[in-house]
Design a protein that fits this description.
- Chain B: It is a multi-pass membrane protein.
- By secondary structure, chain A is mainly α.
- Chain A has 2 domains: 3-76, no CATH class; 83-241, no CATH class.
- Helices cover 83% and strands 0% of the residues of chain A.
- Chain A is built from 13 helices and no strands.
- Chain B is mainly alpha-helical.
- Chain B is extended and about 50 Å long.
- In chain B, 82% of the residues lie in helices and 0% in strands.
- In chain B, helix 1 packs across helix 3.
- Classes of the chains: A mainly alpha, B mainly alpha.
- Chains A and B meet through helix 2, helix 3, helix 4, helix 5 and helix 6 of A and helix 1, helix 2, helix 3, helix 4 and helix 5 of B.
């Protein structure tokens, strides 16, 4: 690079402008590809955008924290967006109320399935204790997963990464599971993806319909609260069972 | 639009204050959502402006997860060290959790619908 270009690069990579612009460009490029593919589940825009950004950060030798200095303006909107979930929830309130019993039972069964199956599969294949504890809350939203994993002996950073991967896996695989299990009700589709794949799953559900989004939001919120309350009780019991 | 965003931020702020004040593990925005939901139930539905702003924000919810999601790049080594059990656990458990939840919910809601159907 010429000295002038180097100077420009030094300026840009230190300013929040670059991280913010990269995020928006990656999202739009990913969404364009998603549309071009005819909305193919494997062309999930969140997954593609993250992959593109990972490559750009690696090629440009940009530190993630520096990238986040800019991208945090987008990240910040997660707060008001979470509050805004109250509006679709209100719109679906009559149906939510009518299904309250089945929803609560599905919540408890689904939440236990997520925790127990992640722990068991990890333990059978020889994951370390810290990894198993970080895996257990993988289906709930990042701040809860990190807060729950740490005091129990998990690694908050690993828990956050596993939560993100779970969200992407859920968003990509759910359409196949809908088809395979012949689930046509948007309420059922949304509830399951929100429970198992938190916010990224809820974002995917809003692409199906507002109703799927509302049920996903409800499942995400309830599973977050349930896991935060129950995991500190379940985990010691699991560890005794596994002889650890 | 500005008044709707102000309202959302005010509820988030109230949620954060409650979460910190009471030392809860539940994130502030989730409490803010519950507060706004309660307010809507008590005072009737959202106005057009709030509905439109919320709709726009939620339509692009995927975008908002990209900065945090890209954080995976920082933990490549941690995950690579135990990639087999972690990958298998994530894939297996996510498929299972989605499938089991859907099958339970489908079976239960069919039964309640059936019961309602048999009533005269």
């Amino acid at each position: 690079m010429t000295p002038q270009l180097t100077e420009l690069w030094v300026y840009l990579s230190a300013s929040p402008l670059l991280g913010l612009t990269l995020t928006l460009v990656a999202y739009q490029a990913a969404f364009w590809l998603y549309r071009r593919s005819g909305f193919h589940p494997l062309a999930n825009p969140v997954m593609l955008a993250i992959a593109m950004l990972a490559i750009v950060l690696w090629l440009g030798n940009i530190d993630y924290r520096r990238y986040f200095d800019g991208a945090q303006f987008v990240h910040f909107l997660l707060g008001p967006a979470t509050v805004a979930l109250a509006i679709p929830l209100y719109a679906e309130w009559p149906r939510l109320k009518a299904m309250a019993g089945p929803l609560l039972i599905a919540l408890v069964v689904g939440s236990l399935t997520a925790v127990l199956s992640a722990y068991t599969i990890g333990a059978l294949l020889g994951a370390s204790r810290a990894s198993l504890i970080s895996l257990a809350p993988k289906s709930v939203t990042t701040p809860i997963a990190m807060a729950v994993a740490e005091p129990l002996g998990g690694l908050p950073a690993l828990a956050a990464a596993l939560v993100m991967l779970t969200g992407v896996i859920g968003a990509v695989s759910a359409p196949y599971l809908y088809r395979w299990l012949r689930i046509n009700d948007d309420a059922v589709r949304g509830f399951a993806i929100g429970l198992a794949a938190h916010g990224i799953g809820t974002a995917r559900a809003f692409q199906i319909s507002a109703q799927a989004g509302a049920f996903a939001a409800l499942a995400m919120g309830l599973n977050g609260i349930l896991t935060a309350l129950c995991l500190p009780w379940i985990l010691p019991w699991l560890e005794r069972l596994g002889g650890r | 639009m500005i008044s709707a965003i102000t309202l959302l931020l005010a509820f988030q702020l109230a949620g954060e204050v409650i979460a910190r004040g009471l030392g809860l593990q539940i994130p502030g925005p989730v409490i803010g959502m519950a507060l706004l939901f309660g307010t809507l139930l008590l005072r009737g539905g959202p106005g057009d402006e709030l509905r439109q702003t919320a709709g726009t924000l939620l339509q692009h919810l995927s975008l908002l997860f990209i900065p945090a999601g890209t954080g995976i790049v920082m933990y490549g080594e941690l995950i690579a060290a135990e990639w087999l059990p972690l990958t298998a656990a994530l894939l297996g458990s996510t498929f299972l959790a989605i499938s089991v939840t859907m099958l339970v919910l489908k079976a239960l809601s069919k039964r309640t619908k059936g019961e309602q159907g048999t009533q005269p």
